[in-house]
Design goal:
Strand content: 5-15%
Low-confidence stretches: none
Number of strands: 8
Number of helices: 14
Order of helices and strands: EHEHHEHEHHEHEHEHEHHHHH
Strand order of the largest sheet: 1-2-3-4-5-6-7-8
Radius of gyration: 20 Å
Length: 320
């Protein structure tokens, strides 16, 4: 069972990637790397190329809207020696897709293919890609009835993409409604497809992971938002040792805070703020009675002593 940590902006930094790797992630991806900013040598962007041997295999994901800039960015990325260079053809947010990058390229397939080919030709590192089912529900099928994503996958394969991850939603859906894995399965079952196909979207439990592998035949599953505050999810899906009690899980969250602070240059407040989305979404705290005020306090705390004291209080009151 191949399980990958999805690339997520402001989430998949080295601190979080290493935790997920420890708990069974077979591959991890960096945050999105803006090609134009990388070429301009913007420090906050080049920093995203930081990878460590302990997290391999690791992919660095780049995005942009111009073939030449993307090829130049790929040449810079290869100096960090990632195991894969991944192209983001799926990010739906307006600041990316609205500018013709990410999922915005689903509206301009010839340009998407040109970008993919330019990156493939620029480097020897294996080039992979991540995309969505289409731009909106009206673009899911071609005039002859062929699923858009099946045709796109075949064309990306033809220009040298060596692996394709597919999120089971359109760009218009963003992260709303249920991910459609049926079309992902059609890509995997296409007789022309010989590259690995990775499924992505709404895989949150061991049961669902097993079902997706068995029903759709994908080569790997990529897990994103379900990992927030739960890096041990990979271990649970694989039946490996994982934190079980609230005390054990809170100990991992504490470790993540410390690692985030270190990643943020030992800036305590910055590292805590960087970790907050994990507190907010962690399944550890879901369903606790009368937890609202404690959660608010946890998200407002900006010193390590405060954060840890609240976490200890949570374990004492609700955990074991």
């Amino acid at each position: 069972m191949n399980l990958y940590l999805a690339p997520m902006e402001d989430v998949t930094d080295p601190a979080f990637r290493l935790l997920c790797k420890r708990y069974g992630a077979d591959r991890v991806y960096t945050e999105f790397v803006n090609a134009d900013a990388l070429v301009r040598d913007i420090a906050s962007t080049t920093r995203k190329l930081t990878i460590r041997d302990e997290e391999r295999p690791v992919a660095i994901q780049i995005y942009g809207r111009e073939p030449e800039a993307m090829a130049d960015a790929a040449r810079i990325v290869k100096t960090a020696k990632p195991d894969f260079i991944d192209i983001n053809f799926g990010c739906p947010v307006k600041k990316v897709a609205g500018k013709g990058a990410g999922a915005g390229l689903l509206k301009d397939v010839p340009k998407m293919l040109e970008i993919a080919k330019s990156v493939v030709n620029a480097v020897q590192t294996p080039v992979t890609a991540k995309t969505r089912l289409g731009w909106d529900e009206n673009s899911l099928y071609l005039d002859d009835g062929t699923p858009f994503i099946v045709d796109l996958a075949e064309r990306l394969q033809d220009v040298g993409i060596q692996e394709l991850a597919i999120h089971g939603r359109t760009r218009s859906q963003m992260y709303r409604s249920e991910a459609d894995w049926t079309l992902i399965g059609e890509v995997k079952n296409s007789p022309r497809i010989h590259i690995p196909i990775i499924g992505n979207g709404d895989v949150c439990t061991p049961e669902r992971a097993k079902e997706c592998f068995e029903r759709y035949g994908v080569d790997a599953i990529m897990i994103g938002r379900a990992t927030f505050g739960a890096p041990w999810l990979f271990a649970e899906m694989k039946g490996l040792p994982a934190p079980r009690t609230m005390a054990e899980k809170v100990a991992v969250l504490k470790e993540h805070v410390l690692a985030s602070i270190a990643w943020c240059g030992n800036d305590e407040r910055k590292g805590i703020i960087h970790s907050r989305r994990h507190f907010a979404a962690s399944p550890v705290f879901k369903g606790l009675a009368d937890f609202k005020q404690t959660r608010i306090a946890l998200l407002r705390a900006d010193t390590l002593d405060e954060v840890f004291a609240i976490m200890d209080q949570i374990v004492e009151q609700w955990g074991n």
